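Today's session is about reading a structure prediction critically. Students often jump straight to the picture, but the first step is always the sequence itself: look for stretches that repeat, for charged clusters, for runs of hydrophobic residues. Only then move on to the predicted structure, which in these notes is written as discrete structure tokens rather than atom positions. Here is the chain we will use throughout the hour.
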Amino acid sequence: MDGIVLGLFLLAAFMGGFASGLAGFAMGFVVSGIWLHVITPIQTTTLIVGYGLWTQGYGVWQLRHSLTWRNVAPFIIGGTIGVPIGTMLLTYVDPAHLRSGVGLLLVLYGIHGLAQPAFKPLQAGVAADGGIGFLNGLLCGLTGFPGFIGQQCNGHAQRSDEHSKRLAGGKRLDSQHGSREHR
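Below is the predicted structure for this chain, in token form.
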């Protein structure tokens, strides 16, 4: 790594850590915008997952007693199936296509966050939760973005506030305002 690449890498890591510390999430989104241009997609995904385990693992550990594992199990099972498939696909996907896909995902996520569209809540059951877990796992295996799809779907599924709090690790994520409330 030459000096410029190392500088960009460290700048992205700092910005990602700052975003994660400020918002409690989004490290992967911030760093991938730069890292995908200076290191390989496999290295980017590995680093995002590794750093995510450290930064988010602490919060989950602190909230572990407030989770209802029966409600979380379909997401975990689906994700356990999706991650290896996404990781396998990572070795076959052209890095240029992956960079473009992640860029498009980030742009769409930003537009969605700014527009805050109102969707009619959908009835969600165990099969839907397992499917969301699978898609989360697939995306995480490809990009290192865990929970992205679940966070988006949680705001559109018709669940009780208590169920949403338990799925979100003891916090209620308000998709309309982006605020977080502690129980």
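Discussion point for the tutorial: Residues 111 and 133 are 24 Å apart (CA to CA).
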